């Protein structure tokens, strides 16, 4: 079941941001600056809500950090 959540989170991250999630070989959050950092944060908020969580930190488990 969690494998499906990982796949969903990674696909949604790419749909929202336009780049691969860190877990799928995309850039890490630490390497992002400015507008990309804001896009990343909003994507994580959206995905967290879609997965039924209140904290965006949980998205790091599924999409990477």
How would you sum up this structure, described in words?
- It is a single chain.
- The chain is mainly α and 65 residues long.
- It is 58% helix and 0% strand.
- Estimated helix fraction: 55-70%
What is the total tally of β strands? 0
> How does the overall form come out from the CA principal axes?
globular
Largest sheet: none
SSE arrangement, N to C: HHH
- Distinct helical segment count: 3
Q: Could you tell me the radius of gyration in angstroms? A: 10 Å
* Residue fraction in strands: under 5%
Uncertain stretches: none
**Overall mean pLDDT score?**
94
Distance between the termini: 21 Å
Could you give a short description of this structure?
With 65 residues, the protein is mainly alpha-helical. It is 58% helix and 0% strand. The mean pLDDT is 94.
Summary keywords:
65 residues, mainly alpha
Topology (SSEs and partners):
Blueprint: H1 2-17, H2 34-50, H3 59-63
């Amino acid at each position: 079941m969690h494998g499906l959540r990982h796949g969903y989170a990674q696909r949604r991250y790419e749909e929202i941001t336009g780049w691969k999630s860190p877990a799928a070989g995309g850039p890490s959050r630490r390497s992002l600056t400015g507008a990309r950092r804001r896009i990343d944060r909003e994507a994580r908020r959206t995905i967290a809500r879609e997965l039924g969580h209140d904290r965006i930190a949980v998205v790091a488990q599924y999409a990477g950090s």
